[in-house]
Amino acid sequence: MKPNYLLIIFLLFSTLGFSQSFDIGGTVKEKKSGLSIPGVNIQIKNSTKSTSSDFDGKFTLKGVPSGSVLVFTFIGYKTLEYQVTKTETSLNINLAEDTKVLDEVVVIGYGSQKKREVTGAVAVVDSKTLEVLKPIKVEQALQGTVSGVNVTTQSGSPGAALDIRIRGIATNGENRPTTIIDGYVGELGLLNPNDIESITVLKDAQAAIYGTIGANGVILVTTKSGKKNSKSRVSYNTYAGFQESSRKLNLLNATEYALLLNESYANGGRTLPYTNVTGLGKGTKWQDEVMSTGVPIISHDLSMSGGSDKITYSVSGSHLDQEGIVGQNKSGFLRNTARVGLNADVTDHLKLKTNVIYTYFNRKTLNENGLGSVLFNALNVPSTLSPYDSNGDYTLVPSTAGLGTEIINPLAQIANTYNDYSYKKINGNFGLEYKLFDGFVLSSSMGFNTSNSKSKDFSKQISYGGKVFDVNRSSVNQGAVNDNNYSFDFFATYTKKIQDHNFVATLGNTIFKEWGNGLFATGYDVPNNSWEYADISLTTGFLEAKTNSSYNYDERRLSYFGRMQYDYKGKYLLSAMLRRDASTKFGPGNKVGYFPSFTAGWVVSDESFFGQDKKINFLKLRASYGTLGNDQIPNNGYVSLLTGEATYVFDGDLANGRATGQIANPDLKWEEARKFDVGADMKLFSNKISIVADYFIDTRKDLLIPNIPVSGITGNYAPGSSAPTVNAGTVRNSGVEFAIDYKNQFSDNFNMSVGYNVTFLKNKVLEVNNGTGFIEGGAFGVGQPAPSRMQVGLPIGYFYGYKTDGIFQNQTEIDAHPSQIALGAEAAPGDIRFVDVNNDGVINSDDRTNIGNPIPNATMGFNVQLNYKNLDFALYTFASVGNDMVRNYERTLSDANRLNYVLDRWTGEGTSNSVPRVTTGATANNVFSDYFVEDASYLRIQNIQLGYTLNPKITEKVFVTKLRMYAGVNNLYTFTKYKGFDPGASNGAPIGGGIDYGFYPIPRTYLLGLNINF
């Protein structure tokens, strides 16, 4: 029995020995650069227990049996197996790049490719960049991070729209790129930035797989998903901060204003308005009155993700609340989002993918960016006026000729602004993948968007003292809009390898339908003249005229597409695509369009003659050419609908009715974008430096131009009618893109990443066939001709006005110069001297010419990220060079306030050759000229952030795997010579952009934030 006892004891100790387990952690880094790698899967071999590395490459795995083998896997890197012992509790793992697979897989539409095999101009923004930038809207993350992409804001007010332009402005219609979210058409600006895994921008013919919606470029968004065989991970991200104006304009104070106004009246031969300026002091700073400091912004985001060997999930929710720096709660934005993503391997052959997003936002707005806006009034109300009168009521701005009828007290304007807009949207997709046999996969996806919005604005009965904003009868406007669309994609992908020849074929079709309706109505005489009772159901008044309107629409698109990708040994790369689209937006003869494209690449560094050059690790040359389309025009342009107004006579009585609206054009067809691109991708010095360079030509033909002049006999001037839309223009954008990135690990404690990108762009109109040879747009002053044009040989939307040549110093100079009386008044010493462009001896409208271009010659971004031990630092900047801006926020009325540059005005011979005299008399100084056009080049520090991550050994004691705190500033400072609020703002119009009507400034935001992972 004794030997048996010994055997039992031996087995018991052996079992205890093997059952001993311990916790292990560590960091995963890239072997060459030393940079941390997030998302690496770490699994115990022959076990389902696993985890993944976090944002900083750190991981923790609990309950690891002694002697286990950990398997580290990540796309683009060689799989590493590491056997652990009980004595090891902290690992430093370095993964080597797989030379056969580049470090990224890029989404290219209806599939993906290894980055080394991509033959088009493609750029990627990852979740790490989004986490650093903390954009309120996702579009902001593309500014300065992607070459060839320019993002402009229409306003700094909360929730305002942003405009994305990929490789310039190509059409005078819709220029926004199409956004595809996990395979379906969506809206980029409504997404929660923390839900995004990556953003891929298709800039060239690579986007031809999307046919008629790809002409302006395509943005592909991949949302986050759980990882297989990983434990549940909970992340909470929050930040809170305050906002203030990033800029204020230098206006005349009360004393300066009064003295200047006296001078102006004296020069006009009128009685001085201020006989005594003593005691006026600085007066009211109206910008300080309407702009607040310490305006709050707060954001919360909670997400959970994980997965088993069959199912992965990702669930998130977010809340954002932002008040405006002008008007505060009268100008605010609130957004809530919720998302559920689920992937399941139903069988070994069938996979299910689903992603559903719910978005709700509420927005309140003020009158902005135009004549009579809040900031317009703040800039033009005299500083001698007080905000409140002796009774505590808002001061009335006098309705004298010198102040006009549109300048009012901006504080009263804010107080009497009432509106509310709420929007609800649910969108997502459901997809299936079925592996029929090895290499052949069938995919189907149903994407959908459905949204409902409600709007209400209330006009209070009020008098501002005889102004155009006086409201004699209270009213409330209410509207309800419902928009829907769905898309169904079905496609097959076949992958085949024959020795060194690799083929990937994709064939499928897309069905897309969008429909919706809107209903709007107005009610008069609101009870108690109060916002609380502002509802049509409570109004008691009525009008004889119609007070309601509605619309509905139903559009469809049927598409077929195919793509063949081929490579030989991964060195010679070819791809060909063809898409056929049929759209109900065009007439029977032009419904169908065909969009082919071809791309090719050559990985030169894989050739034997290239050798083993350690300086150049990777070199790929690529080229692409293709045709894409654009059908982003109003519906039903090829037919004439009863959308106009008419009055008819029946039995001697007048009756209101309907009439033909826009004149029909049955020959409408697609806009056609022909895109050409050649480029090179390089990696140098042990992959520490990456370079991407491209030269492109984008020619847009058959532009869909609205309001083509036609004979008045057709009745296009009747109420509600308009001229037709016609294919009648060609625009070309050409340029060069260059991006360089440097990444290096200097030591175990310090690494750095630096990036720079620049885009040089030239825009030229090649054709305008609308009967006049040009198209006008924009507005300047009151009653003046349109200041912007689209015309052959010049950039789209260039500024068209008079050139100036200094200031007349004396009468002799005036006598020697062509007469300027045709501009409205005879010149006098101190007035602007205009150039006789056509040398006909007289200054008149024929002397207007090109005086500026709102399109920048170059845009660039410079970004730095540093990591030292537990500290991290990031800096993002953006610059725009060569764009001009029109100063149109100054009212030319004699008594309006002015910017203080007028203190350098002409007051006598030799005193100034740039700023004209002031006078109440008639002059031509206010006609549109380059005097009002400024160089709006700028450099902006977009984001600066400093963070600190607590040691995981400390945080894990409270079951926290990561705790990072950070402080940051968004829109820290803008370096520019431009006098206005924001040199980078735009109203989004291709013809009429770059005209500053008093843009709401982008706020400077100070943030304190926290990232916690459990």
In short:
By secondary structure, the protein is mainly beta.
What is the secondary structure topology, with strand pairs?
Blueprint: H1 2-19, E1 21-30, E2 41-44, E3 50-52, E4 58-65, E5 69-73, E6 80-83, E7 90-95, E8 105-107, E9 112-114, E10 122-126, H2 127-133, E11 149-153, E12 162-166, E13 178-181, E14 184-186, E15 196-202, E16 218-223, E17 230-245, H3 254-267, H4 286-290, E18 295-307, E19 311-324, E20 328-345, E21 350-363, H5 374-380, H6 410-415, E22 418-437, E23 440-459, E24 475-498, E25 501-524, E26 548-568, E27 572-583, E28 592-603, E29 616-630, E30 644-650, E31 653-659, E32 671-684, E33 689-701, E34 704-705, E35 726-727, E36 729-745, E37 750-768, E38 774-777, E39 788-791, E40 798-801, E41 804-807, H7 811-815, E42 832-834, E43 849-852, E44 858-868, E45 871-881, E46 884-887, E47 933-935, E48 938-949, H8 952-955, E49 962-976, E50 995-996, E51 1003-1013
Parallel strand pairs: 1-7, 13-16, 46-50
Antiparallel strand pairs: 1-4, 2-3, 2-5, 5-6, 8-9, 10-15, 11-12, 13-14, 15-16, 17-18, 17-51, 18-19, 19-20, 20-21, 21-22, 22-23, 23-24, 24-25, 25-26, 26-27, 27-28, 28-29, 29-32, 30-31, 32-33, 33-36, 34-35, 36-37, 37-44, 38-39, 39-40, 40-43, 41-42, 44-45, 45-48, 46-47, 48-49, 49-51
